[in-house]
Structures
1.
Amino acid sequence: MTTASEKTANTPLLEVRDAVKVYGGGFLSGGRRVHALREVSLSLDATPARITAVAGESGSGKSTLAGAVLGFVQLDAGHVLFEGQDVAAMSRNQRFNYRRSVQAIFQDPYAVFNPFFHTDHLFNLVMRRFGIAKGRKAARARIVEALETVGLRSDDVLGKHPHQLSGGQRQRIMIARACMMAPKLIVADEPVSMVDASLRSTILDIMLRLRDDNNISFLYITHDLSTAYQICDDIHIFYQGAQVESGPVDAVLGNAKHPYTQLLIASIPEPDPTRGWGTQLPPDDENNDRDIINGCPFYPRCPKRMEQCVAHLPARVSLDDTGHQVACHLFVK
Amino acid sequence: MRGITKGYLIKRLTMLVLTVWLGLTLMFIIPRLAPGDPVAAMVSRLSAQAGRVEQSEQMIQAWQERFGLDAPMYVQYFRYLGNSFRFRLGYSMAYFPTTVEEMVMRAMPWTLGLLTIATLMSFTVGIAIGALIGWRPTPRVVRTLLPVSLCFTSIPPFMLGILLIYVFAFGFRVLPFAGAYARGVSPAFSWAFVSSVIQHGTLPAAAVVLTSMGHWALGMRAMMITNAGEDYMVLAQAKGLRPGRVFWMYGVRNAILPQVTALALSIGVIAGGSIIVEYIFTYPGMGYLLYQGIVNNDYPLIQGVVFVLICGVAVAVFIIDLLYPFIDPRITYERG
Amino acid sequence: MKEVDLSIHQDTPPPRRPRDYAWLNGKLIAGAALLLAVLLFVLLGRLFWDVTLARVASCPLNLPPVGFDAPGPGFEPSQSAHPLGTESSGRDMLALLITGTPNSLLIGIIAAAIGIVVGTMLGMTAGFLGGWVDAVIRICSDAVITIPSLAVLIVISSYVSEIDIKSMGLLLALFAWPGATRVIRAQVLSLRERGYVQMARLSGASTPEILICELLPNLLPFLAATFTASVSGNILAATGLEALGLGPSRVPTLGMTIFYAIRGAAILRGMWWWWGLPILMLMIIFIGLFLIAIGLDELVNPRLRSGGDA
Amino acid sequence: MSNRTTAAAVCEVRNLTVHYDVSATPVVAANEVSFDVYEGETLGLVGESGCGKSTTAMAMLRLLQTPGRVAGGSVNIAGVDIMRLRPAALRDFRWRNIALIPQGAMNALNPVMRIEKQLADAIAAHADTGGRQALRARIGELLEMVGLPADVRRLYPHELSGGMKQRVCVAMAVALNPPLVIADEPTSALDVVVQRLVAQSLIRIKETLGIAMVLIGHDMGLMAQLTDRVAVMYAGRIMEIAPTDILFKAPLHPYTQQLIDSVPSIRVKKPLRVFPGGPPDLRNLPPGCPFEPRCPKAITICRGETPALKACGEKQYAACHVPNTNRNNI
């Protein structure tokens, strides 16, 4: 390892510090307040590239976190740091660099295309702004190269309207677009939840190759623990805006400690008729509209709840030296 | 939480007050922006007229008091707002010493009656036609014939009014062409009077109804078609419900919601259109009163009529807004 | 070929190509043809007809159109020099139509154009920025929509002794923006959550760039539909004012002709051509605009086509 | 999972063919689909998007909307061919004999009607409700059966969570005790924990009422947990049909194999297997076996001849020229 990379290795690539986001409750909007992020902290190392999963159900705040990392969502408190720089307080130059280094893939591979333009528009937009290649020819070569990385032939997809392409082609174009900029981080917001089984492995495979060959880190936002288990290195389990359990994926999913993680894992239907669903029945979902403000948000559904759970949010406790942390009063000494 | 919540009520009330205030302020600003100081011109015209009018002094005084022309602008403004909210609209210049309130009160019932009936009719008939055209199981014959009834859509109501007068009042001479009731009949709750009112109201109402129902029909048709693809429509059919029930409770009931919103939005336009219809038919309502004001340069009358029109429309919109939560349970829903 | 949305019952929606048959929409074509005919009439008329005949006392009075009998005693028979007849002040109806139609159209177009530009800017700002800016713009436009604009315009016109075509258009534009604001705001609200807006942002585009380069092209059909509706609404308001005698009086307009006809008791004297011809012309314009508006509506919302009339 | 041998068929689908008339040559969305559903069993209908599973379900209810139409075949439920019923009889037949749990839980309930009224609607259309009290009691009973409190009946759909809405749909489907219920991706829009809850109520009504069910889905995991038999569809055809335990242990069709292999596990890490190609384009199907372009085992005959569904072992049928028999070691 050279000294230069040592320096970057010390500062994390991405760091989220005590991020808080609350929706609603304003004067005009009224309605109840939704805690989308409750003091969330996580960090991604620069090298080697890793895939970090943020997993949770709908309403867990995982998409808000993605939005905050991409600069779409303003935090109410806390910071998002990219290579040590606060995203909210960047200079023009830093912001340019950040835009180039942090890219995204979204859930819906259709909506990301402006229906008015050809698919080329997406590439041209980036080309022009970031000056990735000089001249038409070089630009074209760059695009073709990026498309090849994701297994697409440029003749099949360029110069077409998005509706003329299949879902798999569209999603791969998105990845190619992100790759072309040679980013350091790609935020993948549910990239496989709207594609068929056969395409799912194709896209996950591309993500793995980009991590290994191009040294691109991923923040993989998902509701699907199984795909996270298969491709991720680290995982953070979210529940209603709180990180309930995090650490290396084998530790968290193989040896789940938080009752919520355990419930999630037990609820996954196994593609094996001989292995039943287990006996742990989830509590009913309508008991959960009680909004716990200070305590553990999982309290209303938790099978192991205790008195102190309502009182205050449990701090994250490290279980071992691998980084496996859990936020549950069961483990607070 | 059902029906109207406090927050919703406050929002709609704010809107009502705001609309009326905006209208009043416009009425206040317009004469002061007009070229050549029309207020001064008005006063001079007033003095010229005073030769003919006995209580001229009193009239000019009342006029100046109302507008408080020598006071600072903000004093004038607040005095004006105060007077308006107490429904003191001043004296008519052409019919002194009749007050504008009196004249408006005399004209209002006619407009209110004509407009309410015409609007409700065009809305319900239009909705019914649109619902039938947009409903797949409607017999093909009906779906082909019904759109014919919409042929007057997009034509301004007053133009249709002229045509109707020409055909029915001048040509066939079956219906009267002017006024609200026959000259010989005195206003009383008698058959002669009521039938006369209905006869006189038919053509103006027809002019409004025939020209506006097409818009409701088109909006309704679009929503019925959009609705037909909704999952709850498929489920209703799967449940084996009678077609009538699917049509009303699942189709019409949902498709009508956007039309009610559209109704609230277009009341102002409908009221504007009916002003001119009344003028064409010399119907003794607000529209005709307004025309008289224009002809006589009777500015207090014009402003008074327009102020009352603005209030009336704002109140109508407010009422529709208050009814809305009862037909759409989602509107005031807030969790927690 | 009929375009249908299979997505409800088939698992993959087939490609939808709204642009492929944009110009095959019958209503759109019919509407455009009507308006084109009106324009052609005006242009040819200016070339081949003496438009000074639209002045007062340039012709004999009260002539019926060629081929029609006089409506009663006291009328002269029709003359071939005045094929559409003349009215009570001695103006030639054909010349009136030729000169009045473009004026009426112009007022509507000026007002609608200003309204659409202002409305688009406000609607985009409101929809994209959200927050209190949106609240203020929304509340204001809703309040202005509620106010019966024609009534306020009557007040204004009554204070203005003389007005020309352009000022009339400007005056109408005062109330022409809220409709467009509402439509555009609603569209932007739904479009701004689309992935491609986020994509453009990731590609480093600024907010104005996103609004103009990404959103505006997709709003075009909505703008076209709103514009058509607005032209129609403004011509209606203008003719309404003119029919009350509040329009421009130095240049002929169709509404002013109707005003004179009403004042001249044309209906009761049986002079149907006096009010009938300008109304016919306006009806053609309104029907043309209306057809274009519903044609555009079907373009924006393809389901409407396959639905009811199928 | 019981292997019924003597159970009678509640529903017999024979050669069901559905066309979508979107161009000169119709798109065949379901092609000669035949299967039986036996009393009390759950039959899974699984496949990727565009495979015709939802189309088949809708055709079974005669709810296809234009341009879709049934071009041939029959669906016999309780001895009546639903395709031959006249409109009035069809109306009466639906829900009493075949009910639907729809796909979009979010939008399947009428937003302006209370839950109670929507449940009552279904009952009152077909049976004597026995008065207001009896009806209310019945509705409470139905809601309880799917684990919802009785006061849910007073609410509007927007006041319920997705899982609750879907369970209301389940309660509605069994209101008249129909012999057959079609569940069209009943949990596809739900979170995994809620999905488990809804699945639980499906299992419960199946066990207590003995209702036969056709479960449409794309999730092989859910199929393994909820069904007794599974039919795998591809490009409008049934590729394989077999009892669930056999199908998962020894799939015959290469496509079934791929479907099972592509489900990521949460217990064992295995290298990702990437399968070439995407779902078929129904407008432009290859001659022969529709799966041939993506099939790792394709041979010459696959390109020319469409394989028919044939028995390849007890209760197991596959439409393949080269079924995977070497794994068939049971």
2.
Amino acid sequence: MKNILLTLALFAALVGAAHAEDTLAKIKASGKITVATEAAFKPFEYVEDGKIIGFGSDLLSEFSKDLGVQVEQLDLPFQGILTGLAAKQYDLVATSVTPNAERAKNYAFSRPFAAIENTIVVPSDDDTIKQLSDLNGVLVGTQLGSSTDAVARQMNDELKAQGGSGFSDLRLFQSYPDTAFNLQSGQVDAIIVPSITAAEFMRTSPDAFKIKFTYGKPAYLSWVTRPEDKTLLEALNSTINRLIASGKIAEMQKKWVGVNSATPENGYLPDNAVQLRQ
Amino acid sequence: MKYILSGIETVPLLLDGLLTTLAICGLASILAIAGAVVIVAARRSHQRWITAVAMLYVTLMRGLPIVILVFLLYFGIPALLDLGRISAFWVGILALAMNGAAFQSEVLRGAIASLPKGQMEGSHALGLNRFQMWRLVLVPQVLPVALPALAGEIGFLIKASPVLSLITVVDLTRRSQQVTMQTFDPLGPLLAAGALYFLLIGTIGWMSRMLEARLTVGKSR
Amino acid sequence: MLSLVAQSPSPVDTNVAVSIRDVSKWFGAFQVLENINLEVRVGERIVIAGPSGSGKSTMIRCLNGLERHQKGKILVNGTELSENRKKIDTVRKEVGMVFQHFNLFPHLTILENCTLAPMWVKNADRRQAEGIAAYFLEKVRIADQAHKYPGQLSGGQQQRVAIARALCMKPKVLLFDEPTSALDPEMVREVLDTMVSLAKDGMTMLCVTHEMGFARQVADRVIFMDGGQIIEENTPSEFFANPQHERAKAFLSQIIH
Amino acid sequence: MIDLLSNYGVIILRGFLWTIILVTGGFAIGSVFGAVLAILLVSKQKLLNWLARSYVELIRNTPFLIQAMLLFALFGIMRMRLEPLLVGLIAIAIYSAAYMAEIIRGGLASVSDGQREGARALAIGPFLEFRLIILPQLLPFVLPASVNLLATLCKESAFLAGVSVAELTFSGQVVITQTFLVFEVWAVIGALYLVLVLSVMAAAKRLEKKMTWLIPGR
């Protein structure tokens, strides 16, 4: 183990990391911002013809224009994305993340640029699932480590609190498209996904799915920085504020999502959020 | 059948992923062989602790899944040591090389062990120094034995490389997943990626067999 | 009982151990045996000689069904060798074979090598099988090694064990396929001595060998083969002193210096 | 670290157990299938031989992760609902069968034709020939090699996390999404794999030593 650490330390030294200074200053000095994206969240960030596009890409180009820097964009699976940020492998998580209690303990969130709801999606031929209580004994799927992962567990707890049996099982997949494939192929009975994802599924294969109901409060979509990178977060928020004020965000929502959703400047964070305590 | 057709259509979309896989495996192989030589040298060292460290390293690498090694290197250790940004591409190469070096050092050790004892004694008797002995006498004999097996190890390296799709690297595997998410075709891109891997690994295996056949020609048995 | 018509013995003639009639065999398009005719009487000792590739090994391997002949008839102790498994097994139980490379079973002790077939094939009980094995191991003068493994013995010792193993099945005929050609020179003698003593006991033997001294000493007849045919058949003294055939002469001049 | 183990130890332990079940179960099924394949590999039946050879080459020349993904996609297309753990087990069985087939084939090839002839000349029938002569000589070769294969399977099975099979690595991912203790979790998971793999490898080594006396020629 010592050997690995030594090798790695050496390696990291080679790659070069000056992590004492302010991240925003460093970005500006190097002329490059490195962001991580999970490009499997249509229409916010996804890959088409080998390129990452979507709502987030438009926002990212606005942000980098404001900063006057180049973008290096990494594509990685969602469960690694926040921990990679903590490990300083990139400056910013430029992928849609919902500020929930678990995450807000460790990460700072930008002003949201869209609102989503937790929707329950079933195959189009299913007539049995109409409301929450119908999910008792049902095999439910969602994405591992996503906001809906936490929501799903909350739903299950609520079902049991009401005296139901709860889900027959909660199956966790590596990405949202994975949940859709598995719903389509009958591997699960229902999936819990963000409304935007559900709309996207409906667009891609309109005959396969039905959106049944929504659960809980609307959730917001933000980008994420390390809590100590206040200057970077402020820069990002000022870009988002500018775009909201000019109506550009609404335009982008229309273009990519198809519907508009308002997002607040404050109050989108859970009470325990680390950035509120600073 | 329909998926085979869609898979064939997918192939051009996967080529940049294939290139990344090739680049990673190529670089990792070179590093692995260099690392293997260092490990073998360490294991032959007269300093007991160097030998012990080398052995411990090989044991660790043989016991740890490459998936966990990559997660530790990419997520775990940077978080622990508060390292700055590290590149998934290079971490991937490092992980494959670290793993490959351990296995290839075993191949080299085996090849060296297969040399007749008299070769070293003969070299000493002729007054060759250590370096000359290795360069002039031993290496030319070790290489033909070790090369085919080392080439085979590169095949293993390629088979392990999809692990990098689990971190940021857009290699052949991740590229095929991206295409799947884009086209909602659950099988075609995977079949295409599988076929490309098969061709790649099969070619390496074929080359290693050719090499073996060529190198054993003219050797008296 | 003595057959009056020696030229065409009936299948039940108990004096005939092996009868080969018009046997031919091909490996693909290549003919390895061509119209072989040979009759071996009980107690006879035959040495088969010939250059390599002459078909001599193939011929004796046909006698216990290790190779199948494609034309003609082979009778061993009155049983005709055919595709019939039962008949092949009947023949194999009565015919022992000693191979060039011994083919001892490396995972079994010497004793176990000798008792394996009697116990599993002839259903002898262990004590009985071990008694027989001990007798024959004594006969090949290797009884003291009974609990060793083949890998611990010299080549000559291994070959003597192989002979004992074949004898333990109480065969009526023993086939030897170049039994000494894989041995170091100093070990050839001990194996040949064993074979000579077997011959003296009256065992019916067919030996493919280049050991011409052995042929002179024990053979009733020498068969010379070339190109898949029996070219010459003679008493040893006649064969060595006065070979009839050119190819036999050439062969003898090569192996006798 | 203690917090991690007391709160999430159950999840990790469950993953560990599932890894063991997946690997041993898949290995057991794969061994049976591999033995059949090995027989086909040495058979003279051209078509069957070719099919077995193709299977072995396909599996041995593609990454396990791709095979697992394909298997999940195939079950999906057929609309068969199977427990992901079961699909993972099948994936390991499919994978190990190919390697097992090669191990057994190699073992069969290591028993010389002379051994078979020796048996035949003693009128030992095909069944007894296999049981008494071939098998005992096969085992010293096949057993250590297959236990080594088992160790490899333990490591390869970590790839199953990539297809959402709830084995040890996946359980690590689950715990991390809830705790963000990245290094600690992967260190614990890594240690568990090390213990598992190294003890299986040690068993293989012991088996090898124990069985050397059986190897011809010594």
3.
Amino acid sequence: MESKLMHVFPGKCTACRNCEQACAFAHLHEGRPTRSRIRADADPQLREGKHVLVVCYQCDAAACVAACPANALWRDTETGAINHIAERCIRCGSCVAACPFGNMRWEPLAQHPSKCDLCKGDPVCVRFCPTGAIQYK
Amino acid sequence: MIRLTIDGRRVESRNGEYLLTLARRAGIEIPTLCHHEAVEPAGACRLCMVEITRPQWNGWSKLVTACLYPAEEGLIVKTSTERVLRTRREVLELLLARSPRAEAVRRLAAQYGILEPKYAVDQEGDNCILCDICTRVCATHVTGAISRVNRGVAKKVATPFDEASDVCVGCMACARSCPTDAIAFSQDGATRAIWGKTFEVVPCTVCGAPTVTREQARWMAQRKGVAEEDFYVCDVCKVAKTGLSCRKVMW
Amino acid sequence: MKQTLATLPVLRAKLKEERSKLRCIMVCCGTGCRARGGMQVADAIRDELSAAGLAGSVPVELTRTGCHGWCEQGPIVTFEPEGVFYTQVKPEKAKEIVASFQSGEPVSKLLFRDTKTKRSIVTYHEIPFYSKQTRWAMRNVGRISPTEIGQYIARDGYKALEKVLSGMTPEDVISEVEKAGLRGRGGGGFDAGRKWRSCRKAKGDVKYLICNGDEGDPGAFMDRSIMEADPHGVLEGMIIAAYAIGAREGFIYVRQEYPLAVEHLGMAIASARENGLLGENILGTGFSFDIRIARGGGAFVCGESSALMRSIEGKPGEPRAKYVHATDRGLFDRPTVLNNVETFINVPLILDRGAAWFAALGTDGSKGTKAFSVVGKVNHNGLIEVPMGMSLKELIFDVAGGIPKGRTFKAVQTGGPSGGCLPEALLDLPVDFDSLTEAGSMMGSGGLIVMDDRNCMVDVARYFIHFLVEESCGKCVPCRDGLKQLLEILARITKGQGREDDLDKIDSLCFVLTEGSLCALGKSAANPVLSTVRHFREEYEQHIKDHFCRAGVCRDLCRYEITDACTGCTLCAKACPVECIAGDRKQVHVIDQSKCTRCGSCFDVCNFGAVEVRSAR
Amino acid sequence: MGAFGIDDILARHVGQEQSLIEILHDIQLRFRHLPQETLAEVAGHCGVPLSRVYSVATFYTAFSFTKKGDTVCRICMGTACHVKGAQLIREEAEKVLGIGAGRTTSDGKYSLEVVNCVGACAMAPVVIVNEAYHGKFKPVELKKLLGRGE
């Protein structure tokens, strides 16, 4: 079965940051947008109120997977997500350094990396986006 | 398919996984300190002891470490018999006497009702319980900068000759994987020191925030055949850059 | 020259014929006898022989043999075939010896004198130490030159191999060993045939065979003696085993403390290769097998099979859990059979003489003979091989000559650091695998250390735990940290600082060692303590409560005093290393307690029982 | 060509991890210790990290990083020797040489070691000076044996 993909429509984004809140809450039980795995950053170069959404592409030939020395990043064949297996992770930070898009982040408190796991096939960011700027289909 | 029971629950395994894996999958808690999914099991901490038997053993049973015992057809596994619990308590007594300040040890010991060690406490004892996770992690996945040296009571984890290692890349996997926070390191923005070696944490070429050590970047670059400089951008700046390129595509 | 199945019997017949005409002077040049000048004795006799015009003339041969196992009597010189037996020979005696060799008149001063009957004995056939033994594993020990393959072949060497390769299938060999009931002589007593069978059945083309010559048990040296004195016997056993399990490569792991064994094995391997008995196409049958020597690095734990395999792989000798058997995944993760030296040397016997013959020796559960190293406080320290099932009493009192200096037997320690101490009440115990294990000790490799009333059992327990603390690999918690705690408690007790709850703590520590350790070293480490607490509990209590060591060993818990029985012979004063004993000749002597180090020398030399051990308080 | 004169030793052994212990034995034999600098070369030859070589070298008592004395005095502490008073010989040796077991005198002349049984139990207690075994040993004989007597 072909797995679904995350689609982003920046034009529809209003930078309400509901997605960031939802993501942080779902994964860390705290509503701090800075800890979110999706970024609805107002692009610093854009002054016209337009926004970009950045979230993991679950790349086919993923740099994070290639960089991980401990095979702690695995693709979930059902959701298509590259999942970070905390138990296997040796927390060397190689994946964070390797991801060219900044979608692999470092959790400063837990001292391990975190990334979008597509919420096991039901991404909360999609559910909470009021404008349809993020879709999963 | 191998079928066995753990604490009366029927459990199945396709390829002879270790009992610990099966028990945890079935939601049965077995304490461990030397277990790490990223490396081969060692059987060093002796906390995951379980009692195994078979009907044809006529009541005879033995203790084995769940982390190393492969699933076998018809095995009857019990994870909290009196024999198991006493062994576990006695092991914790020894660990607590060895590393009385190690938080993970204290917490586990308290769970088993041990608040004060009954044996002579090693006053100079550090937090290292020689679980071997750090050295296994480093040897298996990184550069093998540290190893267990000496033997018996003198055993410790160290770099060769206790000197700064040529091959250590300062990735901190050892320190971060340590269950008892026994590995000393220091970090302040641009530098990081561990195992007697000080590393420069290269500042982000865009914003100046710390990224990775030069040694780690080189090691990664060498392994994957990519340019070292690619690693010197922090994740925040990478997101911004990603956004920027998106914008260029979109608009 | 490479031998074949056709030429080897011819060669053997020829060698036998030649050697049957020889008269030999055999000089023991094993480690023990060398220490006492064995090589010089051999050289002196060689010179004497040539001076007497005997060298080179056909019927005389001077043979430097390997260790006889009776090193305390060394250097030993024997005449074959007569069996004349000279002890403690010095090079100056060479002339007399050669004269006696020619005339047939024994040199009475060099003969062994029986301690009980005070009678001089001419041949070793009549000496109880030898006559009460049944030497099968040690059949060639002291009878041949270990460096000459011809002498081994002449004594039916490589005959079993010849028989095996002449038509027996590997299956036949395994069945024969199984029928014989050969159990591993290394410690655990595991059935050798069964081990071979499971390795043969294991999947994989590459299989390994290992001979464990680590013999780490302090107080045991039968494997050293066998390797030094009969290396080809070990090789033959290994080649047969390799054929049975399907191995092409084998290792002999020898401890580095045994340089002579390494040397002799190395020479034996080279000459076996030259003669087509080892290497490619053995005896022209197409079967190939080769052996390498791996030197140990001075680690007792490497006697444990999984640690030994790690050591051969070039790693630190840390054991692995044996939940997957070595016969499935051993050395380099391939199916492996590991047996010890004494096990392998029994193999040619079984194949040559038949399983039924072997099984007729020994007891129901333990077949064959066993070599013991009986040392310590016995009259005759040395290697003793007897059929399994002989009682400890017979071994110690009849064969080894009992306790010296009229002292009383207290305990015998069997099985090395993994075994235990057995008291007098258990002396009727037959020595076999199962009886010893039942009594809380174990056979181990066969060390028997005899102790008398001058040995303190708490100190012995402390000694073994100290040994194990130094030798623990340090991998698992119970062994590394448990032994350290145990040593601390035992050391405290021997210093008179024992506490009321110490015996309970000892009990807990023994429990966690036995139940929780990773390998056999840790699992059995409690045995020396458990067995002494079990059989000599009152001695522990005396140490803890009364602060008294009755054996006079624990220095803080005793003092020596000279009683009125003193005749003023001055022996004690002369023996005292710190010169703290004063007294005139024929006057009662006095010990200056402030200087006395409690070494006990005065006690040991006094012939009148005038030195007494008293409580330090 | 290596700088430490162990090329011939390395050439004798295949460049695999399993040769490690044999190589270290040969180096120890030649230099009477393992010179620190040689270990990296051994690691390179065997294709293992230096830390692995160090781990092996510190695990086995046969290897030492400090040079052994010209005369190595080893006292057997096996069980047979223990019950016959080896401890007293050890103490005497420590007194005579003025060093603890495992040490070498500052002039580099003597090393004192204790060993766990050399298999010469029938002549216990045993002292080994260099390669020569001395059985049924008495503590008082030590001074003479080591040539440190009056």
